[in-house]
Design goal:
single chain; alpha+beta; Arc Repressor Mutant, subunit A; two-stranded antiparallel ribbon; 4 strands; about 15% strand; elongated
Length: about 110
């Protein structure tokens, strides 16, 4: 999917969910992010790298309370705009799905 020059292999819904989770979470591991968005850890890693490369996300290296090295993720201003664009696209997809369901329901009602 291309949105404003950004290529994402995830569906609009999944990409939107990923950006929403990152925006809301103060600190989140890639593993936790993958679980919340329902993708593999490898997919989460690959997507994060792509989003960082495109200027949508920025990462910061931190030391956790357990002394482990980790990263935090933040949406850049470009990322915040991207999230808004994805939300608009997702709304359009949902509205299209609703129209299709209404058509199907009407057809089925006519059959009974």
């Amino acid at each position: 999917m291309k949105t404003r020059g950004t290529s994402m292999s995830l569906s609009t819904e999944r990409a939107l969910n990923l950006l929403r989770v990152i925006e809301k979470a103060e600190e989140i591991s890639q593993r936790e992010l993958a679980e919340r968005v329902d993708v593999s850890l490898g997919t989460a890693n690959q997507t994060i790298r792509a989003l960082v490369g495109e200027g949508i996300l920025e990462t910061n290296v931190v030391t956790t309370s357990k002394g482990k090295r980790g990263q935090t993720y933040n949406l850049t201003s470009i990322g915040k705009e991207q999230r808004k664009q994805l939300a608009k696209l997702r709304i359009q997809e949902c509205e299209r799905d609703i129209r299709c369901l209404e058509t199907e329901i009407n057809k089925l009602k006519q059959e009974i």
